[in-house]
User: Which sequence fits this backbone?
DNA sequence: ATGGCTCGTTCGACGAGA
């Protein structure tokens, strides 16, 4: 059994104690973090090592973004894509060695896309779509069993948001984003493990705004995902959304996903 | 129905998140 977790932590240095709590509670073999918000040399490497996560692949930058994959089973970095072509640290890929050997694990933080869902008025929105289109061309050529996880910043299904109609013009749930993400999914036949294990319209939010009023009304969105190659997906035995972390003290606005694979 | 919190920057607003 190999257990993989993913969590947009929104500053790993600020929340290392919460990460430790999750690692003890869920005992994943591998944890993929997004928005670590630090450079490689600032990453709390020693704290992870003390918990047994001695294998660490970090793609950080100063202040913003940044991803890291930590593991208690051996792994090897195999890619570091810049799908936005602007130098931001939003991806790292590893190959698992030993248990789960041969699986490729892609850890990605897709850009949020700014406020306005219009390429002309808001360049960040275009960058988000372009980022996913580059991922699509990459996925088209994949020939190994792969799991891609992370913060996709898109809630694809109607039931992935608290109010589908109200969010049709809100970045994260617009039809153009959903269609762009659909093309990425078709390019490789990715299986959405979240909805494989928690069928629509089951509750499956992974993000709630920090704004207290929205949080109180449970206005969540499913922005975080785990997608598996067609040959890998049938090995997934369990999938959980660890919603309780959102009620921990000074939490991340995202909650972790955990999937167990019989490998 | 609601951009009303929270982060890192680095010491006080500001850009960014989504």
Assistant:
């Amino acid at each position: 059994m190999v257990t993989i977790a993913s969590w947009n932590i929104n500053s790993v240095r600020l929340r290392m104690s919460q990460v430790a709590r999750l690692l003890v509670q869920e005992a994943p073999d591998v944890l993929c973090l997004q928005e670590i918000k630090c450079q490689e040399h600032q990453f709390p490497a020693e704290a992870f090592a003390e918990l047994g996560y001695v294998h660490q692949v970090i793609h950080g930058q100063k202040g913003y973004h940044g991803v890291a994959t930590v593991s208690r089973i051996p792994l090897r970095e195999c890619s570091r894509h810049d799908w936005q072509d602007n130098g931001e640290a939003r991806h790292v890929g590893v190959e698992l060695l030993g248990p789960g050997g041969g699986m490729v694990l892609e850890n990605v933080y897709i850009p949020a896309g700014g406020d306005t869902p219009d390429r002309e008025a808001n360049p960040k929105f275009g960058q988000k779509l372009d980022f996913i289109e580059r991922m699509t061309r990459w996925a088209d050529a994949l020939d190994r069993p792969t799991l891609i996880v992370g913060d996709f910043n898109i809630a694809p299904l109607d039931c992935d948001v608290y109010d589908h109609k109200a969010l049709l013009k809100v970045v994260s749930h617009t039809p153009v984003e959903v269609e762009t993400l659909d093309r990425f999914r078709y390019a490789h036949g990715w299986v959405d493990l979240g909805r494989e294990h928690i069928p629509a319209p089951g509750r499956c939010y992974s993000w709630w705004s920090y704004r207290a009023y929205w949080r109180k009304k449970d206005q969540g969105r499913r922005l975080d995902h785990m997608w598996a190659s067609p040959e890998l997906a049938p090995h997934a035995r369990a999938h959980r959304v660890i919603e309780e972390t959102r009620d921990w003290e000074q939490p991340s606005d995202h909650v972790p996903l955990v999937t167990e694979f019989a490998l």
